[in-house]
Amino acid sequence: MANPATPAQWRAALRAEGVPFIELEGWTTRGRDAATGKAFGPVHGILNHHTAGVDSLAVIAYRGVPGLPPPLAHGLLRKDGVVVLVADGRTNHAGPVAENVFNAIVAEKPLPKQDKSKTVDGNDVLYGLEVENRGDGEDVYKRAQYDTWVRFNAAVCRLHGWTERSAAGHLETSVEGKPDPSGPVAGYGRRGRFLFTMAQLRADVRERLAHQANWSPPTTQETPTVTPEYVNLGLARSFQLAPDLWDDVEFTTEWNDEPDGHALNSPTFVRGAARFTGSVSLRFEGLDVGEVVQVRMSEYDDTGALKQDHPIHEVIGTPGGTFAVVPLTKRLAAGRSMRVRLLNQGAEGIEVVSAILTVLAWGE
Ligand SMILES: [Zn+2]
Hints:
By secondary structure, the protein is α+β, with helices and mostly antiparallel strands. The protein is built from eight helices and 22 strands. It starts with 6 loop residues before the first helix and ends with a strand.
């Protein structure tokens, strides 16, 4: 329950909530209070409508419809998302409201189905917002229009300290079978086209009310920032590499990295789906000058079966130990793991003194 907003309160609340609005001349004194002898208020909620027309301002503000003298709402939300403030007093928009629904609005509880046996006069106690739309199920509420719609309802709720449950639709309160508001909405925030429902409007008002009044819903898809995993592995000790045999490098030491991208004590250094780039630094002893060690990456599946070999990189023996840095860059499919393999093409066994792998891996 609240006293109806004064013009100053309307202006301040709408401005704070980012509602674009214009003031129709005379709106601050327009209303049906004098004509009916019933003062508007106290107010208990806001009732949402669609106009079922085009360019409805004159009808709502000045002409009315047969049996219903104007004004027909407190505000008209135009298709361009601008609200025209029409009246500050009692207006002819709600008609009879099922009492059980009205009581739920007052208590801010979920709205029951209308019990038509008892009604209250909604025009005494509810603000009315008419949203311009033909109401034929084809006319689309534009994004700007729906954005203002949410803001307007939130502004009223915030002003009076109400929750989103104080916002209702004519179709929820009417005992005469009113169908409004309804129709397709072009989109809101990150949401694409959807069909208007009061449940969705209330959810969007609720979201607004959880923020400051100057909040705006994010409108673009944010690209998540993917931080690569840093994989840095080495050998616990040197090992012998026999001639003529492809041998996995068993990375046994975890130097500085994060979990889950690979297995410990395993030749696997990255699991798919992932992209990775980096290198493995190798040091060999006993590799004769001019002799060759081949290095390649190989893909395995989850059962440990070799699925694919990648191109060979050749390391040629030099005097006084042999050093090589081999680049590692690949995209790895889901269910695949990657190993570094070595083939000693010399006649004698050699020693792999160290193998240090440094890779940045992006999970996909
Ligand atoms: Zn209506």
